[in-house]
Amino acid sequence: MSISLGLVETPAVVVPGESVDIPVTVRNSGDVVEGYDLDVVGMPSTWATFDPPRVSLYPGASQTVTLTVRPPRSSEVRAGELPYGVRVVPSEAPQTATVEEAVLTIAPFSEVTGELRPQVRRARLGARYRLVGLNGGNVEETLSVTAVDGAEQLRFAPRPRTTTLAAGERYAAVLGVRARRLLWRGTPRHLPFRAVLGDATGRAVTLDGTLVQQPVLSAWLLKLLALLLALLLLLLALWFGLLRPAVTSAAREAVDEGVAQVATEAEEAASEAAGAAARDAIEQERAVAPAAPTPPPATGGGGDGASRGGQFATALVLRTNPGGSASRSYTVPRGRVLLITDFLVDNPQGDTGTLTVTADDVRVVTYGLENFRNQDYHSVTPIRVPAGARVTLTVVCRRPGTPVGAPAPSTCQEGLYLNGTLARSAGTGS
């Protein structure tokens, strides 16, 4: 048996993804009819096919078989020379198999692919895109990244700009895209561009992308600002129309109440001081006046149970809130009896309401405030108020008056001025 391969001196050349036919001649140099099986060694069996895959020859006969080699188009099929062999195995004597060797040249091919992720981004000024490249060829490639836009409205910043990839290696880059100016308002602006992934020979892969530039003041933001402005104006209207007057009125009322309280306290202190001054004046008059002769003791029935005493005067002044009432009293000291000969009630503001004077819990008189400004009361028989009893002024205020030439008051103001004699009770020392 003998075997020969066609094109043995000139190696066969094949581009991955394509095929090459290699003639193989098989001769039966024996003296019996023999069948022969053919296969390849040194390369994947999936690359090679024989036509026909089996031959049967008479002694001295020969036949040419076609070996078709088709390597896949893959980066794993590296470019260069690939030694291989064709093995012929006799079916009757497989131990006498023969291998004929040859060389197959794998031609280089380039295949660069790329992808821009994402293709569309939205931003007010700039955004970043991922650029993924793949060297799908069977030789090393040096790749570079560039980008252009027809309107020249964008700036580009790829990182890295160039790289060298082995066969089958991936490439990952970041492409920064930035608008040359801001879009303040209006509709979004679409800015298309092209990213170019090229190799050293000038071949390039073009990838399309778009930057959708958003306005700084978008429609919803303008609506929000308008809503906030309307809300602010509403709050200002509520403040100046309702809340501020109410706060001012409440503050004024609080101040007026404080002033009224201070005035009331001052008037009460003044009335007490006036009463004390009146009593001091009476005592001084008694001290400087000549002593009156002692009257003879009364004959007949007993007296009124009280000896004569000095002159007495005091004032009771009070303030009353509208719709309310207030009282102020004078309590007769222990061991004394008060004989009231006359008193004066005063309504200087012209208030409306009622004024009541009681002595020892007995009502002496009741006036309507609207009927007088001041009123004298003279008693022919002195009103007797025993020790420990009280003379009380009670005022019910319906509405404060309006004094002429003065601001309207917020409270009613009335006074009671008492005159009489404060004598020792019967049974007490002189």
Structural descriptors:
430 residues, membrane, transmembrane helix, Immunoglobulin-like, 16% helix, Jelly Rolls, 5-stranded mixed beta sheet, Ig-like_fold, 3 domains, transmembrane, alpha+beta, Hydrolytic protein
Number of domains: 3
Query: Count of DSSP helices?
Result: 1
Net shape: rod-shaped
CATH architecture of the largest domain: Sandwich
Which CATH class of the largest domain is shown? Mainly Beta
Keywords: Membrane, Transmembrane, Transmembrane helix
Protein name: Hydrolytic protein
Transmembrane segments: 220-242
Organism: Plantactinospora endophytica
Please tell me about this protein's structure.
This protein has one helix spanning 219-288; strands spanning 2-5, 12-14, 20-27, 34-41, 48-51, 54-57, 62-69, 80-90, 98-106, 112-117, 120-123, 126-135, 141-148, 154-159, 162-165, 170-179, 189-198, 204-213, 310-320, 325-331, 336-346, 352-359, 362-368, 374-385, 390-399, 412-424. It is 16% helix and 48% strand. Strands 2-9-8-4-6 form a 5-stranded mixed β-sheet, with no helix packed on it. A 5-stranded mixed β-sheet has the order 11-18-17-13-15, with no helix packed on it. Strand 22 (352-359) and strand 23 form a beta hairpin. The chain is of the alpha+beta class. The longest helix has 70 residues, at 219-288. The chain folds into 3 domains: 2-106, Immunoglobulins (Immunoglobulin-like); 112-213, Immunoglobulin-like, CATH 2.60.40.2310; 267-287 and 305-424, Sandwich (Jelly Rolls), CATH 2.60.120. The protein contains 1 helix and 26 strands. Residues 286-306 are annotated as: Disordered. InterPro entries: Ig-like_fold (IPR013783). The chain crosses the membrane at residues 220-242. This is Hydrolytic protein. Keywords: Membrane, Transmembrane, Transmembrane helix.
